[in-house]
Design goal:
Radius of gyration: 21 Å
Distance between the termini: 9 Å
Largest sheet: 4 strands, mixed
Number of strands: 24
Strand content: 25-35%
Helix content: 25-40%
Strand order of the largest sheet: 22-23-1-24
Bound molecules: uridine-diphosphate-2(N-acetylglucosaminyl) butyric acid
Amino acid sequence: MDKLVIEGGRRLQGTVSISGAKNACLPILAATLLSDDKSVIKNIPALKDISTMLKILKNFGVRVQLDGDAVIIEPRGYKKYVAPYELVSTMRASICVLGPLLAKKRRAEVSFPGGCVIGPRPIDIHLKGLKALGAKIKVEKGYLIADGNSLKGTHIYLGGHSGSSVLATDNVMMASTLARGVTIIENAACEPEVVDLATFLVKMGAKIRGYGTPRIIVEGVKRLHGAEHSVIPDRIETGTYMLAAAITKGDVTLKNARLEHIIALVDKLTESGLDIKNIPNGIRVRYIKKLKPTHMTTLPYPGFATDMQAQFMSLMAVTDGISVITEKIYPERFIHVSELNRMGADILLEGPCAIIKGVNSLSGAPVMASDLRASAALVLAGLVARDRTDVHRIYHLDRGYENLEKKLLKLGAKVWREKEK
Ligand code: EPU
């Protein structure tokens, strides 16, 4: 197992290229199962989660060939429809093969995904939507056994206690592309990743309208063909490097980044005093004056993304004054708090709220986090901390940040990977 070592205190400067979005790429790869034809997906990030999804596809009998940052997928004749525990248990997003398998193979057996460290992650909205389409689903020996022989378009309200669901919207949208008749999904997730998936499905011949709004309308078609698609840039990686520029008082250009995809973060950072500008093919982020504290609540898109909450907290931890962060999507997603406090931060948890009293400086420490975005928050803290920070268990980072240490190194950080003893 590797760890990341950071010697903090360096100002980041220069240009970083933003990779393809993990969370757009995963459902798009699953969507290739809806056709018999070859599809080519470009701008895929080299990440552990992507290779897990490719393993799942191969396991169904799909041919997969990597070609640089593209992958060629040939599903013709794939016969299996079981996503096994060994693969699903390493990545919850595997659930997004359920919709395509039901639509195309009319059968699916997918290991029931468990909870995870960011809190309970139920799948009731997925099941409600697919059942409304006519799927029969039961749970046996830890597997969802699903029969999609009579999928039929319908009017579905796809909501839960926290609002819309990204992957449930993806699943129901994919399943309805090949269902008879018209499906209307109300309270659909509006995230850019859902829009990217819908864009790919339309290229495959699906008839979908309204994506990017809370009402998606899908008119079922008989078959879908293969398509070529380039995945959108990763908005969470973009936001993480924006915060890296802010926390190190730097000046960083984010190549390929799309400001409109992280408008809530940009709004908060601008309010705090950071200079953020759209430039041709990217965004420039400049620290120009002392930042101010701010309050923020995570919400479904276009609200502030829960996947940016931990990293934003690292910045507020060293911003003079009191900031309050409220987590409305995953109220238990605060495992980074105790680690940040070990580095000298002053953060108090009160239910789903974190009250942050900005400190003058953090001090490097050995830290460990057990999820992807919390690990990124610790890396940001390490960039500004005095002395050395060892971030353990960086396999979490490898699930979601392509070439993290190389990109940081290029921006002037002192960071390297070491084998754990
Ligand atoms: N929810 C339910 N029932 C469901 C599904 C979701 O109650 O059946 C609740 C969740 O517990 C949560 C809220 O609805 O409170 C939103 O969850 P959502 O379903 O939107 O999450 P997801 O689709 O499983 C994706 C991302 C996550 C990201 C969330 C929220 C992918 C592969 N994953 O998950 O990304 O946090 O949306 O934006 O797209 C990450 O990349 O680190 C990550 C965790």
